[in-house]
């Protein structure tokens, strides 16, 4: 029971149906909660478990829920939304659960919704996850049939309607307020904060948006208790984490491990080290929008505090490995092109700065680099620094670039022709 | 108040505002794009970045967006900080990465906010060396030109068009640096306020297509403060001329009246001034002649022995009307309004001069938190008022949203909370109105039923108001709901007007306001038929029907008709008869049937070629000024009257030589006008001994207008009648608010320079907004409840009640002669309820025949679910004119 999120997944890639899920203890937490626990009790348990958001920002989950107005005077309806719009390059952790064990997410959502007394919920799913869409749809029907969803769940006076929404597909939809706009049928632009969604979210009503992995931690926490959950971790924060590795390693993939496992352990034990003829140069530890770390950082624990101390972010926990045969500039260009394409176009530095950044990088690779290009790239990283843009997309996009310029500067410099005058 | 420190200097500020507003209000220059004082902050462009410090010891600070940061007490910011300055220059450089740099061929050039801001940030060397994106432009109709490549993606257009004006057919499409602002496909921009895009857009994406037709640069225009003559609201405008042609209308900010926005009729209706229907020389029975001959012939008709009467006009100035009244004598002066119109105006004025009610400004309507509209389709008769109502319905939800401690300026945040919620708006009319889409409830009925609902609301508000007999349960419940909403509101407004033609409707609106005003004076807003209807109403003259009667009685030898087409006031046969039995001298700016049938016609100046005073629906008297000296024999109406009097050897006008003289005499003769001479700027007014120039200063780059002929500049014409000069010379700085000829400040060449003319951004103009209110609640005035409640409307067999409908484009006389507006005029029609159409076996477009007010009309049927049952709507000024409606008519399928 040290892998509460993925321990029950079938090895053949198939899905756990309701019966199979119940057999491994599924919906036990729900039975227990509606019988014995008040929303405040659940909130305390989740807070004590030190569960933090698994989508990238790592906000403490219990604290986030505590901002939702409660009581009879609270605005209604309230909403709970699962952010299943996983579409950052190199990120493929939620997919495992969505395809393999949708009931875990559904139970997690019912329990979370109960805590904030939300009556309506949405699973906001990336359009390309077609297998997941099919399996979630079936699971929802099973849950409704069994009385886990709908009116008066398990005979209690709590009711919760849960819907699947397949997104039209933009990276911005993964940003929680962009997601809300998209769900309302508007452009997936980020919203101004405050007000935060907990107070004014979907349709202006209190809303919690939570990453899939985060929600899936809730049933085991409530089944086994916060202390058990804390014990799973090798870090100050509770639980396990689905880590993953992509790049030129022997065995790319994703694995659930204790929070706080070191990078080296994940890379060497799970990904089995670099492929033949390739050597390690660096890694984006938390996905495409985190800073590069290098060899010297490999013993860093993959938890929120440690990765930050090393100069990057835990992000999604899915590492992208850079090897010595791959062009750093090419890799950064690939990422910046993605971010430029996915900018919603709302604020200037992101909308006009990212395409410019991508074009400079492309110019370098095509032999059209010019003196001053690196300074211009550095200027872009400053223009798109945190606080200078409307949301976190552009600052995130700058993280691989600014750290590449720091650790691999010579790779960039050698693409700039010496000026004639020099 | 709070104190903030900007670059270590303390400033007293309002903590309810944001840093950008406060910096601009204190006269500091800070560049911006997406923020607009009427639209609030959204934080998109990132242009107004400043450095903010935690306290005086904080040396590092952090960059914040001034528009998104409250001006909190003790806030310390720096505009000059090097990081912030570099960031702002960097933002401009980013914005410019796709901008075509086509200023020399761009209509916006020289009054472009993007140019100004670029210069302000100091960015000048372009670092972007890659290709630019290009867009396909759209054909957006006769008003607006589209050039998307210039777009810097500030989102102001859609925020104005969609969020503020509730338009639907303009949106942001695509994403990243391909965001496209346009329609889903080519086509006419449908919203009635599309023209504001010209001023809202910070660069040349949306420009004035009518200006493009006779383009000139801002600095080559001769401009003067004007007042829109195309409805009764009195929106303030700036009219610009070059080479004897009126080139465009811009908004002239007046915080109490139009604020930042005009309707499209007001903005694009000006072109009639240049039109081929203009009368540019005198006519004798329709034949052109010279002024001396015309005056000689006219004088002969106005001899001492001659029995003459004067018919004035609700679209002419107080000065011109008063000159006519003085010439013919008060007992021979008629207002120029038809009998029905005259009665409606009189009723409205009686209510507004009574106790308990007050006429609100447009700004006050905007701030209302509950609105009840009776009988008036303000979207078509007074469009700017409809825009104000659209803001009013956002008040209640905004107040609610602000409880989350979101500041008023934080538009993006407020909208997220407010979503689609609307405050109380109730509408009762005979036909559907475009405001129905934002109304809490709207109901349809014949004018009498609309009035009955109003009386029922009054009764629900106050038991001592008379009861409405025979009220249906549904209507009673609706009346209770409306009364409840009005009572619960802090600033309720009742709106009605002359549009329904029903006197009972006006009485009912007044009744509601009186009932509401028992404890606290209630706001009652009436719209009048024309730009000076209230001015003429206050002159208290007889109406046109009475003039016709006097002529028919053989008591008149000659009639002087001032700026009035009588065929729009009475049935054709009646006017024909009058033109036959009396000698008519018509003075007007355009040719029409009255001018053509007159013995003598004299060419008068349009609003742009004269000056004068109009009284708006608010009861606000406002002065408009001459923009240019017309060519040929065109003269102001009052000037012709003075010449006529002199030529005829009459001395009535002998002591009056100017508009100022006329206004002073009017103030003495009619007490309600007494405040005018004191409050309106007279010709003798000078700033530092200088006049206010209508042209931009020499240093502006104003070209030598006649350079191709001679480099010597002609002597500018004198202007003895106003404090303005037809010249580049004069007081070079900001004049008093009523005399603002253009918005310009050093470094601010676009309309955004308005910030520099306001006491605080978005507030009153420095020195107060122009105009003088003539109607204030009368403490002892009329306030009794009306007992004249109409009986319920009953359908008649074989007959329908013809009710007036209005169109923003087409119903108003002069704007309909502007080609761009004419393009938007609908074809004549008769509107019928679907069920009535079925009964008559009429299909959409089939001809129906109606006969009323002594005339027969054949009109294509327009089937409308929004029409009340038993009534037929006819568009005024389009299908019919000069008719007295509502009127019963048979209706047959042809």
How would you describe the overall organization of this protein?
The complex is a heterodimer of chains A (422) and B (894). Chain A is α/β, with parallel strands linked by helices and 422 residues long. Chain A folds into 3 domains: 18-231, NADH-ubiquinone oxidoreductase 51kDa subunit (Rossmann fold); 240-323, Ubiquitin-like (UB roll); 328-413, de novo design (two linked rop proteins), CATH 1.20.1440. Helix content of chain A is 41%, strand content 12%. Chain A starts with 17 loop residues before the first helix and ends in a 9-residue tail after the last helix. With 894 residues, chain B is α/β, with parallel strands linked by helices. Among the domains of chain B are: 2-95, Ubiquitin-like (UB roll) (Roll), CATH 3.10.20; 283-337 and 535-669, Rossmann fold (3-Layer(aba) Sandwich), CATH 3.40.50; 349-528, Dimethylsulfoxide Reductase, domain 2; 799-893, Barwin-like endoglucanases, CATH 2.40.40. Helices cover 26% and strands 18% of the residues of chain B. Chain B contains 27 helices and 36 strands. Chain B has a 7-stranded mixed sheet, with helices on both faces. Chain B has a 6-stranded parallel sheet with strand order 17-22-21-18-19-20, with helices on one face. Chain B has a 6-stranded mixed barrel with strand order 31-35-32-34-33-36. Chain B is globular. Chain B starts with a strand and ends with a strand.
Keywords for this entry:
heterodimer, A: 422 residues, alpha/beta, Rossmann fold, Ubiquitin-like (UB roll), five-stranded mixed sheet, four-stranded parallel sheet, 18 helices, B: 894 residues, Dimethylsulfoxide Reductase, domain 2, seven-stranded mixed sheet, six-stranded parallel sheet, 18% strand
